[in-house]
Amino acid sequence: MDFSGQSVIITGAGKGIGRACAHLMAQRGAKVIALSRTASDLARLGEEIGARTIEVDLIDPAATRAAMAEAGTADFLINSAGINVLQSTQAMSDAGYEAVMGVNLRAALITCQQFALARIAAGGGGAIVNISSIAGHRGFAEHLCYAASKAGLEGATRVLARELGPHGIRVNAVAPTITLTELAEAAWSDPAKAAPMMVRHPGGRFASAEDVARSIAMLLSPDAAMLNGAVVPVDGGFLAV
Predict the structure, then answer these.
(1) Is the pTM of this model over 0.90?
(2) Residues catalogued as catalytic
């Protein structure tokens, strides 16, 4: 999977899965255009992999469109930006709803739209991978809007594949299980909390950010030429049992 001479826009590139994608794609020859709201994370990516960086808060639709215009035409788009607000159904606030749905779903649809418009103007082709979650398939407590945003993103992925396929643009999604980013390591380090989830993973472990990044790279590559509109679980078998 050599991406030399090609470019990729990655949202949420400063941390977690997005950061792993940035490093992996750079290692495989791609020019990385990294979007994040945290200037220090972007500066580090610039130093480490020579990424072109754009600071943006994706909660703002106008700023999201401006950032995509600044990013310009690229070969690939990885929508990794995502947040969660842990609130129960009874406690879910308007601010939490706006933040989660705004970043996880609305911003991703905007970046897909802007990416597609640029690709079509350039003659078509290219690929998008959206990052969903097993939370879009199973009902986890305090994940009301998060689950809705991820299920919505999967539905949108299928529509995007249908509408953009004639232009040679493939659109797929991955649905990771618990992924041990720096923040998640702390959250899931307690064996009492991790055990009930771990037992549902036939592979006997949670995912690493690099596991997810490698699956995304596969979906972007020509090896996945006939994968379009798919949601690929990167879950160690969680959804199978």
Answers:
(1) yes
(2) 146, 150
